[in-house]
Amino acid sequence: MSKRSGYRKLELLHDASLWQQHCQARSGLSIYLSDKDKRADAALSRYRDYLGHEFERVFIDCRDSLHADAIAALCGTVTAGGLLSILLPEKPNAMSQRMEYFALKHWSNTVADLSPETSTESLPAGNKLKLTSEQSDILELVNETVSGAKSEPTTHIITAERGRGKSTLLGQALAHAKNKSSVIVTAPRKANAKVLLQQAPQAKFVAWDKLLEQPDAPDKQLIIDEAAGLPLWATERLCQKFTPWLLATTVAGYEGCGRGFAVHFTDWAKKNLAGVAIHQLTQPMRWPVNDPLEQWLTETFLLDEKRPLASSTEAITGTFIKHASELEESLLQQCFQLLLNAHYQSSPNDLNLLLTEPLHKVAYSLEQGRVTAVAWLMAEGPIDAPLKHDIKQGRRRPKGNLLPQAIGYFLQQEWAFDLSWLRVARIAVPADKRRRKYASALLAEISTWAGDNHFQVLGTSFAWSSELDAFWQNNNYAPWRISSRIDSVSARPAAIYAYPLSTNNSQQFQRLSAWGQQQLQWLSKDIAALASTENLSEIRALIIDAYTRHIIPFDAAHFALAQWLYWQHPDHTLTSLICKPDITLKQLGQVWGGLSQRQANEKLCKDIRALR
Question: Of 478, 497, 520, 534, which residue has the fewest beta carbons closer than 10 angstroms?
């Protein structure tokens, strides 16, 4: 393949007709994503399919709405001298204006036409590839693990920004391994490991979910490419089933906060694995150093989490609640970096939402211009009458309004649709400020502000843990619903906690608080906790009715069914099964002679209807 050199370029367009002309003239070494144009290669939601590929031109149609995750991901597929072309929304917003502002900053002169001395070369089809000095040094270290030079196994964690050659390094390490048959490769998708597999074509790739189903095999070495794209619990489980050798991940740039993953996983690895070595690649391979397109992406979407943060120009102290578009750049950077690091599933689209959604706010506390706590707030509800009926019946689940929809649908509490909610979607404090009541102080200020602005309920939703339960309950938030389904990403149940600000629905609030507390007891103490649930009959009757009419799923009705059978049919054979918090439809199907989950659900509904 021929060499490609030069800085990469950016094209931001508002004119749809001009955009069409550019797209029609594109070459075969390009990719075009659009939700509106049938001639496009794929819809925007399919951007992950192209991670690990390389293109000279990338065209992204964002005329309806900006897709920040797709932009950040596909920017990394543009090779040296290439072009990223984006059709912006017809009506400008804070995010599109931000994109244009930083484009002017990085292409203000003739930098887009400069061709630096440094050139990059597209990945050759063969296995021979000149590695950077960084890659060569790390390759020497990682191959000691499988050559027997080291007395104990070492897990190598390799982090880098996009285009630094992580996958190439993994492929070269595997190509140099003496016993390739003992190595298994996995990734979120096989396409993510394309470069790795090009370097080591004899590699054995197995999808990660299939690997989880296999028996433990500590004699097998494991390589995980783009590890941040896997659920954290799955990565940990894979490292227990096999001997982890190499894990690589992008630290920023698209879905999932890679640096957050690296922090969480590295902490876990140091506690649970025999040896851990951490490496970082910094030198780009697909484009020259100081590439303006990479700089534009990093600044526009605030992806550089290691960048030193400046204090606010106003060195003030206090607590403030504003829309993100109103914040000066230094404050926006401080707030977003904290929010990004607080949640390993963060993505560039979070910044887009904060800047463009009018019902989202940022609450933050300052000490001499430095952010000491930050929260992402979302206004939710009320929901209009025609829509709320469809939601309660399970016919609609529109985007947004998470709390009123969850309480109204899963718990069948129609009054929840009529309230004004303020959701604390995320809250974070700097590492050196934790366990010093900064978050609690911010929540107290949010409560006061919410009351002054006529919100009726404060709420939050999170992956449940005993530590988070203690934090929220210490701040007067009570559990209202704990899902019986384990989330595939966090490996924990989703929880909703609420703090009523109004006395108008006090009876309903008290019932749901009692419901949530008893459910927590049931989940931890099993059947014994059901002895305290006799007074919850009103809520459970609504839930059981919705379940038997196929409105809500089994996991949403499980706690109600357990209560009802415990009180109404204590000696029935169903009772001993359903009262177990961890029983699943799959297990019920096995008890009932090998029924499928669907068949088990139908049989359970029929049996409950007969008993009622």
Answer: 534
DSSP result, 389-434: HHHHTTS---SS-HHHHHHHHHS--GGGGGS-EEEEEEEE--GGGT
Is the alpha carbon torsion for 296, 299, 304, 310 positive or negative?
Answer: positive
pLDDT tens-digit profile of 39-74? 899 999 999 888 778 899 999 999 998 999 999 989
User: Across-strand partners of 603?
Assistant: none
**Residues 137, 4: Cα–Cα separation, whole Å:** 26
Measured CA to CA, the distance from residue 23 to residue 25 in angstroms comes to 5
Please report, as a single letter, which amino acid is at residue 227.
A
First to last CA, the chain: 72
| Cα 558 from Cα 544, distance rounded (Å) | 9
- Residue 566 makes CB contacts below 8 A (sequence gap 6+) with 527, 530, 531, 533, 575, 579
Bridge partners of residue 223, in order along the sequence: 185, 246
Distance (Å, rounded) from C-alpha 225 to C-alpha 192?
A: 7
pLDDT given for residue 194 in this prediction: 83
Could you tell me the two tokens for 604? Answer: 């359970």
pLDDT-derived band at 354 (thresholds 50, 70, 90) equals very high
Q: Mean pLDDT of all residues in the chain?
A: 88
Could you give the angle at the alpha carbon of 144 between the alpha carbons of 138 and 145, nearest 5°? Answer: 100
pLDDT digits (tens, 9 = 90+) for 423-442: 999 999 998 898 899 999 99
Q: How confident is the model at residue 233 (pLDDT cuts 50, 70, 90)?
A: confident
Tally of CB atoms within 10 A around 516: 21
Q: Please give the C-alpha separations between residue 102 and each of 10, 107, 249, 352, in angstroms, as whole numbers.
A: 11, 8, 27, 15
Q: What pLDDT, on a 0 to 100 scale, did the predictor assign at position 485?
A: 79
Bridge-based pairing of strands 243-250 and 221-224 is parallel
Q: How far apart are CA 400 and CA 413, in angstroms?
A: 18
What is the token pair recorded at 122? 């597209």
Residue 172 has pLDDT above 70, yes or no: yes
Residues 61/44, Cβ–Cβ less than 8 Å? yes
Beta-sheet strand order (sheet of 360-367): 318-322, 360-367, 370-380, 421-428, 457-463, 493-500, 478-486
Any bridge partners for residue 274, and if so which?
A: none
Assess contact for 50 and 29: CB atoms under 8 A: no
Alpha-carbon distance values, 185 to 188, 191, 245, 265, 275 (Å): 11, 12, 10, 18, 20
Instruction: Give the gyration radius of the chain's Cα atoms.
Output: 27
Question: Locate tokens 């930098």: which residue?
Answer: 111
Cα 465–chain centre separation: 18
Both structure tokens of 332: 């926006």
Q: CA-CA distance, 177 to 568, in Å (whole number)?
A: 64
How many residues belong to the chain? 612
Residues 459 and 514: their CA atoms lie apart, in Å, by 16
Neighbouring-strand partners of residue 243: 221
**Contact criterion met (CB below 8 Å) for 18 and 88:** no
> pLDDT per residue over 466-515, tens digit each?
999 999 999 999 999 998 777 766 778 899 999 999 888 899 999 999 99
Global pTM reads: 0.87
| Total Cβ atoms within 10 A of residue 356 | 20
Angstrom distance (rounded) from CA 548 to CA 602: 9
Q: CA 83 → CA 11, 49, 292, 385, 541, distances in Å?
A: 7, 19, 11, 48, 60
Q: Which residue has the tokens 């309950």?
A: 473
Q: Phi then psi for 427, rounded to 5 degrees?
A: -140, 140
